[in-house]
Amino acid sequence: MKQEEQMLLELNQQLDYYHELMDQLEHNLAILNKLKEDLISLDKLKEGDEILAPLANGIFLEAKLITAKKLKVNVGNGVVVEKSIPDTLKLLEKQEVEILNSKTEVQKKLEELYSGFQG
What we know:
Layout: H1 2-43, E1 50-56, E2 59-64, E3 70-76, E4 79-84, H2 85-118
Antiparallel strand pairs: 1-2, 3-4
Helix pairs in contact: 1-2
């Protein structure tokens, strides 16, 4: 009986882990989609337009746009490059595909675990 209890405990821990991972992927996807919406809105602005720039959660700074067409994008290892909004949107779409692929893999793993739970 102890061995079955141990297996059940391990299975529950794995299920919890993959559910948390799925929640994190959903959260990342929501942030990514909000960013895409914001970039589309930003693309409609003109030089000199006034905006509220976020500094931290709920804290904003009034600012005027020098340019609304060029973004500074961190591409990893502390390297920042200039990208247009359409190019940045393409980058975000690639990230979205990666997140969706990860969600598919996590879902498969959850299905395997649930089938092991039942079998």
